[in-house]
Fold this protein.
Amino acid sequence: MAKKPTKKDFCYNKIRRTYAVFPSARASQAIAKCRKERGEVRRTEEGSSLRAWAKEEWVQQYGQPCGTARKGDKTPYCRPSVRVSAETPKTVGELSKSQLARKRSEKKKTGRGARVKPLTRRPKR
C-alpha cells in the first residue's frame, strides 16, 4: 500500500517556489523564519543545529561568504569563521596553509572534502 503524501504547510510551499536549490540549508532557514513570523515555531534538534550553523558564519579560505567563488577558482573550500561549540569544526584561522591546500585537493578529486575533526583540547593539569 502506497503512503499518502504528507500535507506541507504554507511556508514550506512558499519557500519551495522561491528557492532554486531546494532542499538546502538556506531554504530551511527561510522556512523557519516564515513559520516564526506566523507564530508556528517548531523546536527540533535539527533546528538547533541549523541555528548553530548560522552562528558559525561559514566563509571560504579567502574570507568571502560560501557560495561566492573567486574568478577562476573552481574549488573554494568553506570553513566556519566563528567557533560556537565544541562540535564546531576547525575554523579558517585554525587550519594551516598546507592543510587548506590538502583539503582543496581532496575536494577537487572527490567533489567533496573529508570532514576535519573538531579540535580536542588537552585537559589542564
